[in-house]
Amino acid sequence: MTETVKTEGFDLLGFLPYLLNQAAEESSLTFQKLYKDRYGLLRTEWRVLFHLGMFGEMTATDIGSRAKIHKTKISRAVHSLAKRRYLKRTPSDTDRRVEWLVLTPAGEAVYRDLRDTAQAYEAKLLQGFSDADVAHLKRVLARLGGVGESNHVTEA
Amino acid sequence: MTETVKTEGFDLLGFLPYLLNQAAEESSLTFQKLYKDRYGLLRTEWRVLFHLGMFGEMTATDIGSRAKIHKTKISRAVHSLAKRRYLKRTPSDTDRRVEWLVLTPAGEAVYRDLRDTAQAYEAKLLQGFSDADVAHLKRVLARLGGVGESNHVTEA
DNA sequence: GCTTGTTAGTTACAAAAACAACTATTACCA
DNA sequence: TGGTAATAGTTGTTTTTGTAACTAACAAGC
């Protein structure tokens, strides 16, 4: 077939959600290999681990609120991470529904390793772009994704 | 808990794959409601439909190569779209392994409706950003995601 | 104190995706 | 030719996710 595009003013290849997905998938897939091959972690597990590594002790709800991950996914990731002894769960003594989550030394070690790997990977991903480009990109993405807003995930 | 971040120079909230994912998920989820509620389409089905709408007749492999979707997902999406009479499959007469896929008039109608909706949605998403911001963002994303390279999906 | 509503987190079931193995056909090449 | 490798596409099975419904605990108003 020829390369003729038979649309009327619409360009899928310039459609933002499409571009976002392609870029996100590309970077996710590459990075996924790292935490999966090295530690057998799932995407959500990695995300929970990173949040705990970054922010220290949090509750499951805190993590979900920050990362906009649904609570059932958090619940399963926490369960799995606890089973591997990467984190410790401590019931709150002011509210018995709540559990505080902290990384164990083993979890910390995994976090540090993956964090360093992540940084190296990001550097590679961004080589060829200027600092201004990168700063601009990140600012726009943060705004599009609502990062930092700490909104709660809408219930099912 | 307090807002103290106890990391050494790493910022998850500025980590590119994280930002990409947050932004992509945000826009995907919002747009998903549209094609799901209106036509009961799955994500991959929508993507296949759009590619056929954009580029006209293609094979399943063409689509997978362009959109970097795995062939099993394409296969099932094509099956489902054909069952709904949104596309027609025609065996190639030069290579009996190959099938040409084209949208039916019904499929075209769905495509046009969703395309217009997509444009409106994108406009809303981008309101508040300057034209220069948008152009810059799209250029960087296209490069990050390798859009336009037409690479084949790595086999399982 | 009771009733009603809300929140934290889990569990069970259904939908979708990932992964692997397969058929059929074509391409390559000695 | 004939044999091996590669390609198009499908199917079956396993994981992972999405969704809903649930338990337990707390909060607020009366």
Question: Strands, helices and their partners?
Answer:
Two copies of one chain form a homodimer.
Chain A: H1 16-39, H2 43-55, E1 58-59, H3 60-67, H4 71-83, E2 87-91, E3 99-103, H5 105-126, H6 131-145
Antiparallel strand pairs in A: 1-3, 2-3
Chain A binds a DNA duplex (30 and 30 nucleotides) through helix 4.
Q: What's the order of the H and E elements of chain A?
A: HHEHHEEHH
Number of helical segments with 4 or more residues of chain A: 6
Strand content of chain A: 5-15%
How many individual β-strands of chain A?
Answer: 3
Basic shape of chain A? globular
Question: Care to describe what's here?
Answer:
Two copies of one chain form a homodimer. In chain A, strand 2 (87-91) and strand 3 form a beta hairpin. Chain A is built from six helices and three strands. In chain A, helix 1 (16-39) crosses helix 5, helix 2 (43-55) crosses helix 4 and helix 3 (60-67) crosses helix 4. A three-stranded antiparallel β-sheet of chain A has the order 1-3-2. The first copy, chain A, has helices at residues 16-39, 43-55, 60-67, 71-83, 105-126, 131-145; strands at residues 58-59, 87-91, 99-103. Chain A has one domain (15-143): Winged helix-like DNA-binding domain superfamily/Winged helix DNA-binding domain (Arc Repressor Mutant, subunit A, Orthogonal Bundle), CATH 1.10.10. The longest helix of chain A is centred in the N-terminal third of the chain and has 24 residues, at 16-39. With 156 residues, chain A is mostly helical. Chain A is globular. The interface between A and B is large, with 54 and 55 residues. Chain A binds a DNA duplex (30 and 30 nucleotides) through residues 42-44, 59-61, 70-76, 78-79, 95-99, 156.
